[in-house]
Amino acid sequence: VIKMTDLDLNGKTVLIREDLNVPLNEGEITSTVRVDAAIPSIQAALDKGAAVLVMSHLGRPTEGEFSEEFSLAPVVAYLNEKLSVPVTLAKDYLDGVDAKAGEVVVLENVRFNLGESADDEVLSKKLAALCDVFVMDAFGTAHRAQASTHGVAKYAPVAAAGPLLVNELDALGKALGNPERPLVAIVGGSKVSSKLTVLDAFSKIVDVLVVGGGISNTFVASAGNEVGNSLYEEDLIPEAKRLRETTEVIFATDVRTTKDGFSDWSHDSKTETKKVNEIQADEEIIDYGPESAAKAAEIIKSAKTIIWNGPCGVFEFDAFSKGTETVARAIAESEAFSIAGGGDTLAAIDKFDLANDISYISTGGGAFLEFVEGKELPAVKILEERAKA
Ligand code: 3PG
Q1: Domain assignment of residue 265, yes or no
Q2: Most buried by CB count within 10 Å: which residue of 171, 207, 323, 353?
Q3: Which domain holds residue 80?
Q4: What total number of domains does the chain contain?
Q5: What value does the mean pLDDT take over residues 77-93?
Q6: Helix runs in the chain, H state only
């Protein structure tokens, strides 16, 4: 691909697609990870003398309609705090934007444009006509073939990969391509079904696969244990067994359980520690037990490359967070090349304040998983095609 860093951008209008899809709570950004990751790319384009247009989606609004709830205004306010040049928000931009070198104009949520998700040709051409150079930097949205990620790259005078996208692809390539071994993957989260292709892909390349959360529960059940009220997927027990036959899979041998219903969960909910063959019908597995967490930590310690996606328990509540915390700290303390991705995983890293101790934190959720699964990212593929043409 052509890289933005290799281009002369002096006096050019550069349109950068970022993934500024941040979580919001009553208009406040609750995690700035994605914006912070985009800032160096925007700054680099400014430093090269460009007029910078930035575009992104936010959430999943009704396409073709403006709505305040999904406006990028809070992101623009944050960018204004962080960048030393003025950052403005353009609501109507499809017929042209006035931006001078050294300025940043953020285009309002691309999903307010009819045709965005369908990768509409007319819309793509209008976006492409706004710039001299299009830069795809939104790794988190690279798995979407949409007008602002894919179509625009087809028609822009020049289409290049931004620094963040390049870093993400390099880091994931390093972890998955020819990793230093042992390679250990930790896959948590609630359901085997939603991570089946990831588990399958990992089973073929990792030395040890550690599973946590609800995923672990299905493995616990596959070993013949009763799991009481716990979240698990009976129909996926054969898959769990198959994965265990082909790969070393580490799942819980002891667990923390609660008898509280979901609506009663709190930071100081009462838990009990049980071996997995002692779980009662009225109990729900909520976290790894100490023995399981220590075992996972020991395996992490021996790894040279670590990939982490998904928590090992309901870490949002302190009472159920010890397993995830032990695993997260083991990854942070490891000398291995470690990479973490996914919204919940980033939230856990935030909660335990470990962001500086992980080698690479991916801004991708779905894109991270699709890359790991070995799928082609359409927004990257088009850049490769353009570079060849
Ligand atoms: C994400 O949060 O994974 C990306 O921003 C993509 O968002 P989407 O799933 O709404 O396309």
Answers
A1: yes
A2: 323
A3: 4-163+377-388
A4: 2
A5: 97
A6: 33-47, 73-82, 121-128, 152-155, 163-176, 192-205, 213-222, 237-246, 290-302, 322-333, 343-351, 366-372, 378-388
Whole-number Å distance between alpha carbons of 305 and 202:
13
Q: Which atom of ligand 1 approaches the CA of 60 most closely?
A: 10
Choose the residue to mutate in 29, 35, 116, 144 for probing ligand 1, maximizing ligand atoms within 8 Å of C-beta: 144
The token pair that represents 39 in the structure block: 């800032």
| Omega of the bond leading into 157 within 30 degrees of 0 (cis) | no
- Cα 158 to Cα 382: distance, rounded to the nearest angstrom: 12
Which H or E run contains 54? strand 51-55
pLDDT in the model for residue 287: 98
- The structure's pTM equals 0.91
ipTM of this model? 0.99
Q: Which atom of ligand 1 is nearest to the CA of 59?
A: 10
**What 3-state class would DSSP assign to 197?**
helix
Give the separation between CA 72 and CA 350, rounded to whole angstroms. Answer: 23
Ligand 1 contact via 19 beta carbon (within 6 Å): yes
C-beta atoms surrounding 114 within 10 Å:
14
Q: Are residues 18 and 83 in the same domain?
A: yes
- pLDDT in the model for residue 102: 96
Alpha-carbon span 240 to 251, nearest angstrom: 11
Question: Is any atom of ligand 1 closer than 6 Å to the C-beta of 141?
Answer: yes
CATH number of the domain bearing residue 154: 3.40.50.1260
Q: What is the dihedral of CA 126, 128, 132, 137, to 10 degrees?
A: 140
Residues 15, 149 within the same domain: yes
Query: What are the tens digits of pLDDT across the range 26-56?
Result: 999 988 999 999 999 999 999 999 999 999 9
Residues 203 and 71 grouped into a single domain:
no
**Per-residue pLDDT at 343 exceeds 90:** no
Chain-centroid distance of CA 192 in Å reads 18
Smallest CA-to-CA distance from 4 within 158, 229, 225, 187 is with 158
